[in-house]
Amino acid sequence: MATFNSHYPVTGEVLASYEITERDEVNLAVDLARDASHAWVAMGFAGRRKVLLRWSKLLMQRVDEITELIAKETGKPISDAKLEASLAAGHLAWAARHAESVMRTSHRSPGALMANMSATVERSPVGVVGVIGPWNYPIFTPMGSISYALAAGNTVVFKPSEFTPGVGKLLAETFAEVAPSSRIFSCVTGLGETGKYLCESGVNKLAFTGSTRTAKVVAATCAASMTPVVLECGGKDPVIVAADADIKRAADATVWSSMSNAGQTCIGAERVYVDAKVAEEFKAEVLAVAKKIHSGAPGQGNYGPATMPSQIKVIQSHIDDAIARGGKALLGGSNSVHAPFVEPVVLADVPEDSLAITDETFGPTIVINTVADMDEAILLSNASKYGLGASVWSRRKGKKIASQLQCGMVAINSTISFAAIATVPFGGVKDSGYGRIHGPEGILEFTYPRTVIRARFQLPIVFTSFKRTAGSDKLIVNLTKWLNGRLG
Ligand code: NDP
């Protein structure tokens, strides 16, 4: 059996060894999940709710063990890992409690021509869902798909990132403790190839979180078998600061949003567009906050190292490119990068075609660019190929600005908070992906609609028959004209 190792990113020390799951075993896991789905569906909403709530409770009972493992595999502070695990357990409980009402059969109007029909739309689970997860939030992010897919009545096979396989295994182990069968939710560890096998395994839907580059490969692989996909990819989230913003709060939240978790947050702030009238004040506040934070091992820093070693090169290249093109380094710079850590970097006046503006940096850096007015801020925010999240700081114009942004989620006078609200959907547009997790939309994403109509009584005129007469043709045309006139 081929294996790979997980590492502690602070020192590179080997933590554990995991199986590289080959194609046959991935297919077997999917087959077993398919077998298990009959029993899982048969348990009904109440039965599934019980299991999933028990799982949520167990995750919180073992939160110390889970967070220690997350901190080991990612290098992030224990308190961040605890927040992540708690939010994941909260989403799981919400999905468990609300799947029934969200998936309730809906009754639709049959229209005047079909007045003798009852028209209903049922929601069915898709079957087996494959989930491919990232390493930056190894429990919160994949659970956004896993929880909602399971609550909808699907079984799930999960392929965690090669950087966080232990968290994936622990999720499957804890589920097995509370579930009637471990086949309902299982974990296959491995490298990118194992993820590819999962895409090709015949799962009924594939939920992916990670880079846009890999998302396109995943979507292309899944297209060969018409497997639908949900893609949660990267972002280049803008922060818009208006002249009437609470500058202190905006600066504090922006530094946290861009630098917590070492900047490895898909919905983290990456670029700021601040009104020229308050730009100097805002920059001064950002610097005051950013100067007080530093990277370090769990227990020693405000945030940890780059979890994925190769990310360091990306961060370095974005900083160097921004400065080479005339951007100003207000705090730190090229020498802030000392692998595996990166100290806070604040850049200003960076040209809009620089890598630090166009591409996802995924490091503890922030670019602050000054704009003449909010129209320019909106224009530049929307100029990105990404469209995941955004944050707007304004006392009076927040809603108006937010309504003009091309992205999946906007926080007004707040940051990132939409991820913690279980009732709202999470996802992006453009290169940030498509499909939604979280909220009712997240449950429906893992279902398909089935239309069921029933003839309540038979009409004297039959439309769906070779016996249809010229008289009934005339009636249809006249009735449609009359209805159009009446409704128009
Ligand atoms: P990837 O997109 O390459 O990896 C995400 C997941 O996809 C991992 O589980 C990975 O497995 C798996 N995978 C890799 N190749 C394939 C394939 N051909 N078919 C199916 N699955 C595959 O992200 P990286 O970890 O390499 O990070 C690269 C960049 O992505 C980061 O710099 C960051 O910008 C962005 N990113 C965005 C995230 C987000 O939350 N939106 C999360 C993580 C990264 P394995 O890990 O074993 O290779």
Put the structure in a nutshell.
The protein is of the alpha/beta class.
Secondary structure layout:
Elements: E1 3-7, E2 14-19, H1 23-42, H2 44-61, H3 63-74, H4 78-102, E3 106-108, E4 117-125, E5 128-132, H5 140-151, E6 155-159, H6 165-178, E7 185-187, H7 192-199, E8 205-209, H8 212-223, E9 229-232, E10 237-241, H9 247-259, E11 269-275, H10 279-290, H11 311-324, E12 328-331, E13 337-338, E14 341-342, E15 345-348, H12 355-358, E16 365-371, H13 374-382, E17 386-387, E18 389-393, H14 398-402, E19 409-412, E20 429-430, E21 433-434, H15 439-444, E22 447-455, H16 470-487
Parallel strand pairs: 5-6, 5-8, 6-7, 8-9, 10-11, 10-18, 11-16, 15-16, 18-19
Antiparallel strand pairs: 1-2, 3-4, 4-22, 9-21, 12-15, 13-14, 17-20
Helix pairs in contact: 2-4, 2-6, 3-4, 3-6, 4-5, 9-10
Bound molecules: NADPH dihydro-nicotinamide-adenine-dinucleotide phosphate.
Explain what this protein looks like in three dimensions:
The chain is α/β, with parallel strands linked by helices. The chain has two domains: 3-233 and 437-448, Aldehyde Dehydrogenase, Chain A, domain 1 (3-Layer(aba) Sandwich); 237-421, Aldehyde Dehydrogenase, Chain A, domain 2, CATH 3.40.309. The protein is 41% helix and 20% strand. The chain has 16 helices and 22 strands. It has helices at 23-42, 44-61, 63-74, 78-102, 140-151, 165-178, 192-199, 212-223, 247-259, 279-290, 311-324, 355-358, 374-382, 398-402, 439-444, 470-487, and strands at 3-7, 14-19, 106-108, 117-125, 128-132, 155-159, 185-187, 205-209, 229-232, 237-241, 269-275, 328-331, 337-338, 341-342, 345-348, 365-371, 386-387, 389-393, 409-412, 429-430, 433-434, 447-455. The strands form six sheets. The protein has a seven-stranded mixed sheet, with helices on both faces. The chain has a six-stranded mixed sheet with strand order 7-6-5-8-9-21, with helices on both faces. Strand 8 (205-209), helix 8 (212-223) and strand 9 (229-232) form a beta-alpha-beta unit. It starts with a strand and ends with a helix. The structure holds NADPH dihydro-nicotinamide-adenine-dinucleotide phosphate (NDP). NADPH dihydro-nicotinamide-adenine-dinucleotide phosphate binds at residues 132-136, 141, 159, 161-162, 191-192, 195-196, 199, 209-211, 214, 217-218, 232-234, 266, 308, 311, 314, 360, 362.
